Amino acid sequence: MLAACVAVALPACASPASGAADPVGQGRALYIESCAGCHGDDARGRHGQAPALLGVGAQSADFYLSTGRMPLADPRAEPVRSPPSYTAAERRALVAYVASLGGPRVPRVDPGRGSIAEGQELFTSHCAGCHQIVGRGGVVPGGVAPALQEATPQQIAEAVRIGPYLMPAFPERQIDQRELESIARYVLSTRNPPNRGGWGIGNIGPIPEGMVAWLLAGTALLLVVRLLGKRAEP
Amino acid sequence: MSRVGRALLLVLLFWRGLRAPRPPGPEPAVEEGGPEEGRPFRREVGAQRRDELLVAGLLLASAAASAAFIALLFADADPRLLGLSLALAVGLLGAALGLASRRLVPREEAIEQRPRLAHPEALPPVRARLGSVGQGVSRRGLLGAAGVAAGTALAAAVAVPVTALGPAVGESIAQTPWRRGRRLVGENGKPLRAGDIPAGSFVTAFPEGADKRELGSAVVVVREDPERLALPPERQDWAPLGIVAYSKICTHAGCALAMYRQPLYEPTSDQPGIACPCHYSVFDPRTGGTVLAGPAARSLPQLPLRLGPGGELRAGGGFSGPIGPSWWGVRKT
């Protein structure tokens, strides 16, 4: 194989995910290099450290790698969205390897087929409790519910099906494919929510808006009172 | 919207009336000098019939606005109209008082040395002055009546919303729609089966055929690993296949429990918890809804579950305790 590489294109051999060989093998090599320390050489997991990857499928691998949640420096830390550590080709190889261990495929989702109104309704009842109604994220005791503006439709679908970290999973029986597409369409719409003018303070809702209004109005009133008091002085 | 427009038009017309040029009247009486010679003193009696009528009109308009607030409140009108009428009532009352102080009541400018006031012989003239504040005001009865009307009506408008408080709760909290054998249905009204509650998911359920908006209706249903369930001994048969149900109403302030934290890999994250988005009370679904964190002081009431012959979920009875936010003596019920 090395000889073939040298013959065809030498630079391509520098990257282990050159695409010249089978992606599962390359993925396995990458896995042993960076993931096996916690998930185990045979992907059966290490108790108290990392779960088994048998049966999680391409769905989980693609989600965790494309959102930069894995690899995790400290297995006890909460995985949060960050720039991916691997190139697209390396991720494809890793996903192919994890997929070869069995499990669900990457879900297909077409937000264009969903209804934004239904999506908002479903998002309100299933997601907004933690992620907040415009998807700006929030806090769950024990974790962080991330903001969703960077999520791609595929990542949205994967998260709904997997239930990463402390999030509950929503299987097909609870949120079917069409509903999932509606939710994805609604979440995409929160990237540019309708702007009614004025200071939107990140569209985080009427309660913070009211608090900001009280704060500003209270300060303005205090200033007016002070000015009036100054004028009244002889 | 047209009602609001008409009200705004009224305000505008009223403002124009206020700004209209005043007809020439008798010159206000001005009294220079003072009761005691040698001190700067000026007294102006400015009451005019027109001003009196204007103040009385403003006071009566304020009373009318307060009455309108009460009427609108009972008519269940748009809250914006309620706010507008109350604002008019207070605003007109303020305008009337301001106008009365500027145009009706005699104005005095007097400078007096402070130590002088301490002398007892200075008191009788001061008392006499204080007693003459109504000088020049001819329609005292009308103004007084209008003032009383405005004040009473505003006080009534502020007090009447008390009637909007709901009926006394009484025994209704203890009586939830849940009965032994009643089926659990989803938000779409379809009966829930055990297979509809996969591990790791979070389902809101209601009693079949009951009003979903009732406080005691909504329950959260989750499936836990039966081996990790640690329910109290008397509730051992309340969780078929590890499926447990709890009231969806937080025992702290009565919000709906909308958050479920379900660890994908428990050794490196938190244990499962049903959480309230209002003040972050967290309840443990494995131990019968005990409080894990947050301000709630009382466990979530648990609903016993049974599995029907077709695999459908049925209630095994009522809740384990009173549902809804806590109150004094809640543990005695």
List keywords for this structure.
heterodimer; A: 234 residues; mainly alpha; Cytochrome Bc1 Complex, Chain D, domain 2; 2 domains; two-stranded antiparallel sheet; 10 helices; 3% strand; elongated; disordered N terminus; B: 333 residues; alpha+beta; Rieske Iron-sulfur Protein; 5-stranded antiparallel β-sheet; 4-stranded antiparallel β-sheet; 6 helices; 31% helix; 16% strand
Q: How is the topology of this model organized?
A:
The complex is a heterodimer of chains A (234) and B (333).
Chain A: H1 2-8, H2 23-34, H3 36-39, H4 57-66, H5 88-99, H6 116-126, H7 128-131, E1 138-140, E2 143-145, H8 153-162, H9 177-189, H10 206-232
Antiparallel strand pairs in A: 1-2
Chain B: H1 2-19, E1 29-32, E2 41-45, H2 49-74, H3 79-104, E3 107-110, H4 114-117, H5 123-131, H6 140-159, E4 184-185, E5 202-207, E6 219-223, E7 243-247, E8 259-261, E9 273-275, E10 282-284, E11 290-293, E12 302-303, E13 305-307, E14 313-315
Antiparallel strand pairs in B: 1-2, 2-3, 4-5, 5-6, 6-7, 7-12, 8-9, 9-10, 10-11, 13-14
Helix pairs in contact in B: 2-3, 2-6, 3-6
Question: Into how many domains do the coordinates of chain A divide?
Answer: 2
Beta-strand share of residues of chain B: 15-25%
The helicity of chain B comes to: 25-40%
- The arrangement of helices and strands of chain A along the chain is HHHHHHHEEHHH
- Approximate shape of chain A: elongated
N-to-C CA distance of chain B: 49 Å
Helix content of chain A: 40-55%
Largest sheet of chain A: 2 strands, antiparallel
Task: Say what oligomer this is.
Answer: heterodimer
Shape of chain B: elongated
Distance between the ends of chain A: 96 Å
Low-pLDDT segments, ≥5 res of chain B: none
For the largest beta sheet of chain B, what order do the strands appear in spatially? 4-5-6-7-12
- SS class of chain A: mainly alpha
Detailed description of the structure:
The complex is a heterodimer of chains A (234) and B (333). With 234 residues, chain A is an all-alpha fold. Chain A is built from ten helices and two strands, in the order αααααααββααα. In chain A, helix 2 crosses helix 5 (88-99) and helix 4 packs across helix 8. The longest helix of chain A is centred in the C-terminal third of the chain and has 27 residues, at 206-232. Chain A is elongated and about 90 Å long. The termini of chain A are far apart. Chain B has helices at 2-19, 49-74, 79-104, 114-117, 123-131, 140-159; strands at residues 29-32, 41-45, 107-110, 184-185, 202-207, 219-223, 243-247, 259-261, 273-275, 282-284, 290-293, 302-303, 305-307, 313-315. Chain B contains six helices and 14 strands. The mean pLDDT of chain B is 84. The A-B interface holds A 47-51, 75-76, 78, 125, 128-130, 138-143, 162-171, 173-174 and B 187, 195-196, 198, 200-204, 258-265, 267-270, 273, 275, 277, 280, 282, 292-294.
